[in-house]
């Protein structure tokens, strides 16, 4: 459903109507969408396409030695900018609406953004596993922290496109009066974010399906469930850069508590998830063994014994035949 444009917004800045006029050369017939569902789609789609275009341009234009930093930047920026969509969804449809949106959106994003990391925890875990050195990981994490600032600006820009009647006002409020999501003592927030990351990343390391899109989809169902469980307590970001983009220095939460809850907690949880994955698996990942090595050695020995016995029997039969032939010739 779309509202007829009898009175355009008088706010300054570029709106979707200005873009429509520049592209098509005529005024749009509507001022705002009146269905929150349509606005939700436009917010997520705008964020995804803006980051994806920049991501693909980086693949083509950015020199090889710094390309991975650009890919990390725009992939992380996409996931953080989706936070503006998450907030809008929760306003109208609560956690149920969030769940229905975040799973397909994140799944599509992972399938589209094939290279780079979308979360600082990805680089941190690569270091812990020995896949990347500390000097490789440190600048990549720094770039992902910078992407939080880019995502914040992009999210406000999308809100200011004025798809829905109150989005510009919401953007102005966010820009001047951000709020803290930490609604419990910070030490409990640390434990909650740590536990959430530990469990979610442990499940994420398990094979859910041999079909990759389905495997990703199922794992994001688990992630969304964890977020819904703790969103009213800490925001349950499980994404340090996103948490800082939306709540660093906000409300009455001191900066040191923010760092402990949203950075130290997830980093510790990522470490624990690796240790947990080494000891516990949801499905058997052991390689198929037809028979143990010792049994194979025994079977090979038995086979050789059988061959030797057979050859010995053949020798006996041949000796008997020779004796019979000799007797016949004598007779």
Automatic annotation (TrEMBL):
Regions crossing the membrane: 33-54, 66-84, 96-116, 137-159, 184-204, 216-235, 255-274
Keyword Aminoacyl-tRNA synthetase part of the UniProt annotation: no
Superkingdom classification of source: Eukaryota
rRNA-binding keyword on record: no
Subcellular location: Membrane
Location of region: Disordered: 284-331
Keyword terms, alphabetized: Membrane, Transmembrane, Transmembrane helix
GO MF, one annotated term: channel activity
Topology of the protein relative to the lipid bilayer: Multi-pass membrane protein
Basic and acidic residues bias spans: 288-322
GO cellular component, one term: membrane
InterPro entries xrefs: AQP11/12_channel, Aquaporin-like
PANTHER family xrefs: AQUAPORIN
Protein name: Uncharacterized protein
Biological source species: Pinctada imbricata (Atlantic pearl-oyster)
